[in-house]
Amino acid sequence: MTNSVVDSSLLWIRGIRIPASQYKRIKSRLEQNLQGEPSRTDYLELAQLELRKQNYGLAMEAVEEALQLDPTDAESQLLYANILELTGEWDRAKSVYRTNIMLHPVSAQGYREYGRFLLSMDHDDSIPHIRSLVLKGLELDPKDSYAHTILAEIYWKLSQKSQAELHLEIGLRYLQDEPWIHQRRASILAELGRFAESIHHYKQALKEDKKNIYIKHQLQRVEWLLKQKTT
């Protein structure tokens, strides 16, 4: 996975609470930086900060400022697409994701994010196309654990269980300790009936967001399934 300000963490981080004092301190620092010499990186960090407070309008304003500085910047485009996705503007998000891979055909993250977005739309007839996008990203970055996890989900939807399990194992080989990867792995492992492993990854995800009700419910569901399986 690339070391980038922009990542699928944006889709996760919006739900993680941030103390008001920490938010104010970070925002003050960024605003001071931007008053001096505005930089794309500071605008992107500000956008991510506003997402954590679910201030979508302010997040959008910040990323639009970044795009004013560099309209074709890959990171800014992906962040823009992420925010559009989060706010339900899916047609615009799709257009930006598509434009991103056209302008940056060697960006592994761009292919992965576009594929992840299309998969979230749950259009089964486009699954082969989504698979080709994620595979293209993996050609560019074979060690992207998150892309392998997404590909495992795709193969599961295609009823290719052995391929799904293969990419879960490859993803585990390069696994980074990121909550959004743990949550996605946990979901697929549960579908495959590998409940103990699923529980482990849900617990890892909860370490980053202890109050996440959705993950808690999923964890409880899988724990119940494991209990039923072993009794």
From TrEMBL:
The keyword Repeat applies. The keyword Transmembrane does not apply. Pfam families: TPR_19, TPR_2. InterPro entries: CellSynth/LPSAsmb/PSIAsmb, TPR-like_helical_dom_sf, TPR_2, TPR_rpt. It comes from the Bacteria. TPR repeats lie at residues 40-73. Keywords: Repeat, TPR repeat. Signal peptide: none annotated. Transmembrane segments: none annotated. This is Tetratricopeptide repeat protein. The lineage of its organism: Bacteria, Bacillati, Bacillota, Bacilli, Bacillales.
